Amino acid sequence: VAADDEENASVGFASDLGRTIAFSDGVFAIAITLLVLSIDVPDGFARKELGEFVRDEWPQFFAYFLSFAVIGRFWVSHHAQFAMLRVIDPRLVVINLVYLAFVCLIPYPTNLLGGFNESSVSVALYALVVGVASLLALVMIRYTRRHDLLVPVAAARAAASERALIVPPIVFLGSIPFAFVIPSQTPFIWLLLAVDGRFRRS
Amino acid sequence: VAADDEENASVGFASDLGRTIAFSDGVFAIAITLLVLSIDVPDGFARKELGEFVRDEWPQFFAYFLSFAVIGRFWVSHHAQFAMLRVIDPRLVVINLVYLAFVCLIPYPTNLLGGFNESSVSVALYALVVGVASLLALVMIRYTRRHDLLVPVAAARAAASERALIVPPIVFLGSIPFAFVIPSQTPFIWLLLAVDGRFRRS
Amino acid sequence: VAADDEENASVGFASDLGRTIAFSDGVFAIAITLLVLSIDVPDGFARKELGEFVRDEWPQFFAYFLSFAVIGRFWVSHHAQFAMLRVIDPRLVVINLVYLAFVCLIPYPTNLLGGFNESSVSVALYALVVGVASLLALVMIRYTRRHDLLVPVAAARAAASERALIVPPIVFLGSIPFAFVIPSQTPFIWLLLAVDGRFRRS
Amino acid sequence: VAADDEENASVGFASDLGRTIAFSDGVFAIAITLLVLSIDVPDGFARKELGEFVRDEWPQFFAYFLSFAVIGRFWVSHHAQFAMLRVIDPRLVVINLVYLAFVCLIPYPTNLLGGFNESSVSVALYALVVGVASLLALVMIRYTRRHDLLVPVAAARAAASERALIVPPIVFLGSIPFAFVIPSQTPFIWLLLAVDGRFRRS
After folding, report:
1. Do B193 and B130 touch, CB atoms closer than 8 A?
2. How buried is C55 (Cβ within 10 angstroms: 0-12 exposed, 13-18 middle, 19+ buried)?
3. Is the ipTM of this complex over 0.90?
4. Where are the alpha helices (DSSP H) in C45-146?
5. Measured between CB atoms, does C190 come within 8 Å of chain B?
6. Nearest-CB residue to A76 (from D30, D93, D124)
């Protein structure tokens, strides 16, 4: 019976890794494409001059490109992590879904940040959602290392990834208090990540 | 002529299983990602404090995460079911489309539930849509078992899946009367599923 | 040089069929999932009773399920057509894109039909968009038959498909005049297709 | 250690090309399908006659089909470019993401163009976004040629592609000044591309 169970389980989980990767890729692709819906057509657009339009709308374009970079970076990182997997287990499927729930939520704080870039709540919520998503990315790499789900040759690389993935949650979650003091300047703290070479190379 | 027909049919249905899985995965990925659009930017957001924002918006975040969990669970379950298939027939393609029509509808009651969490109609509609979708998942596993579409080694596992999949439609459809008496409390009935170990392991 | 060109061309078009199918599947999956956005939350929802809600909203649910069936049917049919292809040429890529432009447009008349089911313009536009899409499906099967793009064993089946695919454009485009006389009843003309066995089996 | 690093790197990048193509295809498919959301239901629709509806709405349908053709053309071109790749490097992944950020933005100026087709800002923004995206397509083909990422037999074809891809950024970016003088006529300048045979064949 045990052997049978083993066999049955292997039937179901043979293609799990591939299907989870495909599903995650789909979710990333959709979340990144939905960002455009967060840019509103301004009231009274028909009478606006170019200068006025740019002055009113730049926070929305800034939020769009920022979130595109954030989700794009998450995708590249997820991609690298899952390429090192030998196999996936049901618990990792769940952690990955929770992680994706936060990635998919990003268009909402993007919308708030683009429309209300001087509001503490917008900035703090953005930092919280991206911070939790990056924390879950760290949790996933730890989990795969501890539960021996990686291909053997990837060990050194996974250790380096884990070290690099500690930085983003610290930056985003650590920026939350600043959102309540200097909301307009807080996004510049996040941009520090772009100059962190170790993170960039991960 | 019959042999010819047989051959022609096999041309068309060789890649059917793969394409149906890919299409279904795409639909799940899109439906789950569209959930974020159900969270509205509140009126007068610019003047809101954090406490006020959280107090006003928590039903929307609750509805978002609930539906993310529901669609995620449907995906994992669909995934396991279709991994056991040996072949697909045209009728299963149709049942699967009807099932997907209800899965894709979930963002609508999610929107109502997030915005009007004390309305009986919101809660009842949510329970109805999710209940019908889970009923159709049960119909699919029954159909594949009766029409010999499964790989032989999966027989025991499919029987266990079918038993486990009886629970969700009972919980959701059975909660509809409660929606008209205790609408705000009805979602807690649904959360019982999360503690049902047999269902969780399926 | 000619041999070189030949070779270069084959480099680019080796994976074209697969990528076109994947792209088309993605477009079908997204278009079908976007339909849910056409269902509006009614004004004054919070104060509505179930009966009132159903009475006001049923045309929206009808339009949703109708379009889900229409796009689902288009997908099954596209699926069967492309499974018979041996190779794809650049012109078929273009025809397929024009066809997809009409499939992707379906959520718009669905929205109009759900909100204004007694308007002649809604009904006529719906019939026009679906009619043109089904006409283009017919054009595609003709094109693949005439330009020898099919696998040889599929010849009889493709001929049968072409005959069956003549029916939907006639029904939809032919119903347009009725939209200006009996708009509310015109959708029932479309449902005739569901009872046409030859079409159903195609 | 160097050999180890080499090996580790190859683990992560073995499936990179395939996953990048799949991700890009997903983004194209979603962006093209979201275009339909840019067509608004007109105010007072219920009382409109067909003639009035067509007169009010044709700019929206024009913008929809124009952008469908633009994104479709980008997809065919991206498709041909990536089919010539032997391998992908991390920098190309980044350039491709920046390119996709502009492709995904297209629904926004489409919305403006459809709603305000006589506004200079709409027309200029449309030309800018499409122009930058086509410039980035040119940058990508240059990059792949200079960094030896192509399959050897594709050399002549890639050179021809690069020459053809110079035209669209010139047309779109060059049309921006016209947007401020003759906004309503500027889209006709873009249509010149459709008659440029060399570009069409690329």
Report:
1. no
2. exposed
3. no
4. 50-83, 90-105, 107-115, 120-146
5. no
6. D93
